[in-house]
């Protein structure tokens, strides 16, 4: 009995390394297969929504869906079994998504139409970020991440301005254009304002009165100026980081190993070591 | 009588601190409630313009409108009573908006349809900028503000160029396309030019003759180059400020006066002076 | 007779200062009136193309057109008479535009419909650039001008790439989509490609087959990357100039007056003057 | 016989210099004529797809097509004959394109409709990049190339994020909007998401339910922030290169070795050394 327990423990440990780790060959293979299954499941859900395709191959699609759901269920159970703190995994972001990816299929036995909720499986694609940890990409995505985080404060202030502007412009356009041209309510006018300010411009609603077109022209030109701001904010942060990267090619301090010093430094700013080699 | 006067004076002073100030707890609470009421009033006006919603809940909406108008009226009177120079407030930007926010509702008793003018209430949202003075955001919004102000000169020159270009391109397109494809007049053609140059592209007017499409292609490609300019202007200003910010918060080295050292330096990299103040 | 000649010469000289100069009060007034007349004439031509407006006020518009044409004719004659080298003016860019601005009106007496060509008057707006020489704007517009000129080489290479790409993508989309969805010919497909790559997106032509939509998605995403390039080019040049501007606040060399030296210079790079004040 | 062989060898060598080289006058002339022919052939293929044009001039177009195909065939044979390693050329990118440019025309004798495949000729335009090697442009295009290559890592990470976002947003919009408003399947919804995120905005599919419009507004505003990223990445790289360029072309001061001096300096600003070489 104790032997069985120790056997099970060894299996748990081994499975844990394969499922959660990426350092062993088996672990990487598991990740690759999982990645393939996730992509396949997303493609399946997509195909099911294409009417012509679904008509022809409905039974095959459903079969494949169940096979993938089965595999995902096994994976989910293994993840719970082989980890030391199962609740922590189950209540984590990825744990919830993993559950949501299999739940709709089982619910569809009892309730009609819930199988469409399997689209939440696409969220499992986020797992790709964990799998794709090639050093080059991690450093690049880290830099981008930092730049976007550093821009957050300014972006919030900016979006705040934009939202108030859209309400005010939307209200004005509602008064000017009236119900005939699609500006049927203030929320619809605000929707039009956002479509215009972001230069998307569907054309499902567009001003028809000369005054409305004049104000719209004004909004577009001003809007382009306004919309330049987030680009400016993000660019400035990325540029700062791209610039800093140049300094990376310096030789580390021979005393403490840091590379974080001005280019014309005579002393290491972290340990006081003199750089004077004469 | 004198006692009543002094009582009133004390009330005025107290109310003033609450209404105009943000340093006391009661003052901040007043601002928060006011903020909530403004948001609610804006949502109400929006909802009233949505036909289906208005049909169902018209009487409720009107009742709520009158309650909010009443509260805003009380607030407006209090603001006048408790301030020392009421005329200065009443003729200020915010004072006028506060009046315009309540006036249409009272006018609607005598004139039909003026209640729609309550949309000017959305301008009261601008008050949010006064209320939201969390230090982080003020510094960020200050930086953005400075960058946009510094860009003003270049942006004006740029818009001036764009406006003249739109008139010239609009005139050419009017001659080329003629009245069949929606280019019914030069102002309409100019509207189309602005829609195209800003890459909004509604598609309500679009060239149909081969020559018109050729010129339009030319306008789009050139236009994209032109439109890159405001982004460039704003980005350059923001980048300058993002870069400068780093140096601002540092004290110069007490030994050699340099500010050119990493933020977490323990020694000055130029003279080796120790920053350790213990 | 000689007195008449000298009187005429004095008139010519005086008129020349008023018409071509901007330093005297009369000269500036002349420019302002001319500016007003040009704007008025452009507005008139625009109004004439608006059908409802033209129907009501046709005779007034024509009368005003003739008055302005008369004034522009007098101005044109005065410009020729009062200048020393009339041919140089007449064959200059502005000279030709000034002639083109009055010619169509006179031709309309003999040929029907040529009056519409008065739209070339909008080109006279370019004269505004001469009139608006407020120092602040000239410096700003100079900086912009330099940045755009410096970007020219890269922009040409970029547009060259884009044009070849549009031909290739356009050809592919023509093969894929076929004539039903508006991709009636390769030139039409190229027009669609430009509309898509510049993110204008009218929607007058849009892919309908799944494969066409897939390729279009690919074009949009790649296109956005491509289209980021001109913004990058212009921004980099403007940023360089905005940055350089900082250096302007340095003290000029006391010997030769230049401000064009590195910040930590010990000697003036133009005259060799030593900056060492000790 | 040996003489004939040596004559042929001399011809081969001469032809090789003309066809592959650009240093001789004949070589440049050959390139220019080839360039003209390629442009003409592309224009021809385009014209053939314009129905009205093709109806009128079909026989002329076909004749010209055959003449150009003949010339291209001669060129292709000459390229093979005159080069030492013909297989290397034939299996190279340009070699394959050169073959594909002539093949469809010959195939059209046996199979109907293959002549349309001559559109691949537009790929021959890429040869222009080889021909256009004016030093100014090569340096500019090199700089752009480097900037785009350096951005590659970040751009891939970014596109990866965008693709996953489009799948998730597309799935949500499919659930929210349903089949009535054009969101007929998840792939169609993803197509709409890409059209919206890139601010192209055709308007062939657009949300109609209030919730759909609300989510769309959210996508647009967030999307604009996201889409600022590639611009930021490319701008930062170009800015770095634009900045660096200044220093590249200068020789260091022969006295103190600095490169930090204005371009038209006569004296080194750091040591006062005279740059006057006379």
UniProtKB/TrEMBL annotation, chains A, B, C, D:
Domain of life, per lineage: Bacteria
Gene3D superfamilies: 1.10.287.70, Voltage-gated potassium channels. Chain C (1.20.120.350)
Organism placement in taxonomy: Bacteria, Pseudomonadati, Bacteroidota, Flavobacteriia, Flavobacteriales
Annotated organism of origin: Flavobacterium frigoris
Membrane topology: Multi-pass membrane protein
Main localization of the protein described in the UniProt heading: membrane
Stretches that traverse the bilayer: 29-47, 59-78, 99-120, 155-176, 183-202, 214-236
GO cellular component: a single term: voltage-gated potassium channel complex
Domain called Ion transport: residue spans: 28-244
Protein name from the UniProt record: Voltage-gated potassium channel
UniProt cross-references to PANTHER family, sorted A to Z: POTASSIUM VOLTAGE-GATED CHANNEL PROTEIN SHAB, VOLTAGE-GATED POTASSIUM CHANNEL
Entry GO MF terms: voltage-gated potassium channel activity
Biological process terms in GO annotation: action potential
């Amino acid at each position: 009995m104790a032997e069985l327990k120790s056997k099970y423990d060894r299996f748990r440990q081994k499975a844990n390394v394969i499922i959660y780790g990426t350092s062993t060959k088996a672990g990487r293979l598991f990740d690759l297969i999982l990645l393939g299954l996730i992509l396949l499941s997303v493609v399946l859900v997509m195909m099911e929504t294409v009417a012509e395709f679904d008509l022809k191959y409905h039974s095959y699609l459903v079969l494949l869906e169940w096979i993938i759901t089965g595999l995902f269920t096994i994976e989910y159970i293994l993840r719970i079994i082989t980890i030391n703190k199962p609740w922590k995994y189950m209540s984590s972001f990825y744990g919830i998504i993993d559950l949501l990816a299999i739940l709709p299929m089982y619910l569809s036995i009892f309730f009609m139409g819930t199988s469409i909720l399997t689209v939440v499986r696409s969220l499992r694609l986020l797992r790709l970020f964990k799998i794709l940890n090639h050093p080059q990409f991690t450093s690049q995505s880290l830099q981008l991440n930092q730049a976007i985080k550093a821009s957050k404060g300014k972006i919030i202030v900016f979006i705040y301005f934009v939202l108030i502007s859209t309400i005010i412009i939307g209200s004005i356009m509602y008064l000017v254009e009236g119900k005939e041209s699609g500006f049927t309510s203030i929320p619809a006018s605000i929707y039009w304002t956002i479509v215009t300010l972001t230069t998307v411009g569907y054309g499902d609603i567009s001003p028809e009165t000369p005054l409305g077109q004049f104000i719209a022209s004004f909004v577009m030109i001003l809007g382009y100026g306004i919309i330049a701001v987030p680009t400016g904010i993000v660019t400035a942060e990325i540029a700062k980081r791209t610039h800093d990267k140049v300094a990376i090619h310096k030789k580390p301090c021979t005393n403490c190993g840091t590379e974080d010093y001005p280019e014309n430094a005579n002393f290491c700013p972290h340990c006081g070591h003199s750089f004077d080699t004469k």
